[in-house]
Amino acid sequence: MDLGLTGRVALVAAASSGLGLAVARALAAEGADVSISARDPERLARAHEEVDRAGPGRVLSTVVDVTDEAAAAGWVRRTAEELGALHVVVTNSPGVPHGKADAFAVDDYRQAFGGATLPHVALTLAALPYLRQAGWGRVLMITSEAVRQPLPGTAMSAVARLGVLGFAKGLVHSLGASGVTVNVLAPGVHQTPAFEGFVAAHSQRSGVDRETALKEIAAEVPLGRIGQPADFGALAAFLASRHAGFVTGTVLLVDGGNTRGIG
Fold first, then answer.
1. pTM (2 decimals)?
2. What is the pLDDT of residues 73-87, one digit of tens each?
3. Four-CA torsion 252, 254, 260, 263, nearest 10 degrees
4. 3-state secondary structure of 203
5. Please, where are the H alpha helices in the chain?
6. What fold, for 9-188+232-254?
7. Cβ neighbours for 212, distance < 8 A, ≥ 6 positions apart
8. Can you give the residue ranges of every domain in the chain?
9. How many whole angstroms separate alpha carbon 18 and alpha carbon 13?
10. d(Cα 67, Cα 196) in Å, to the nearest integer?
11. pLDDT at 263
């Protein structure tokens, strides 16, 4: 299936590893020019090479802390200027501490909101003029399954990231018939570097080795396995495609069926 992304310009935040890198690779494989960012220069350089090998398009990489509003806006502007346009924006943000809802102070929640929600807002607002100018666009915001199924250890994530959903829903009305869609991706457990920390904690808590810990975690997922970043990247590429033009304002769970609530 031709996704119609050849020649489109995509911007992917936090793309030096994990899900962000998987999305960047998938978009590049479909022929898009891809601009990626991350905070670590060395990891970003390695990611640049991976994305460049994935497809025929151009790759632009920029060291950016997406919690810095001015730096984020500057990256968006540089992308549009150097690659000639902007069509697909994939926002992402740093993770937040795990713990129960009453384990944190008010200031902890304030910092979590600033780190996990505002980068999505800043990047999207900076990108909207370019998307409107192009008359076609896709905004994808990466959050967490916690926005639909808060667990005891993900209370802060649920609180901080729920603001992303409200922002996305509001944009649907603001953008109207502009040709720009907005969707939220809510991933569950995937085989990423960040996930390895979760595995280590589970292993220590349960007193089992890594392989046993992986099996125990996978057993809790209805599909019986841990998600692969490529699974996530493929879905993001489809939502960024011309075929997803009537999909907007949705929250898509990418969690192997782990969230089973109705609604």
1. 0.94
2. 999 999 999 999 999
3. 0
4. helix
5. 18-29, 41-54, 69-83, 106-116, 118-134, 155-175, 193-206, 210-219, 229-239
6. Rossmann fold (3.40.50)
7. 203, 206
8. 9-188+232-254, 191-226
9. 11
10. 24
11. 60
Residue 105's pLDDT is 92
Cα 216–219–223 angle (5° rounding)? 150
Instruction: Find where tokens 């639909």 sit.
Output: 148
- pLDDT score recorded for residue 147: 85
| pLDDT digits 0-9 by tens, 116-137 | 999 999 999 999 999 999 999 9
The CA distance from 139 to 33, in Å, is: 16
CA distances to 36, 48, 57, 215 from 77, rounded to whole Å, are 13, 19, 19, 45
Do 252 and 184 form a contact (C-beta atoms < 8 A)?
yes
Q: What whole-number distance in Å separates Cα of residue 182 and Cα of residue 158?
A: 20
Rounded to 10 deg, the angle between the 18-29 and 229-239 helix axes is 50
- Both tokens of 132, joined, read 């409107």
Q: What's 31's DSSP letter?
A: T
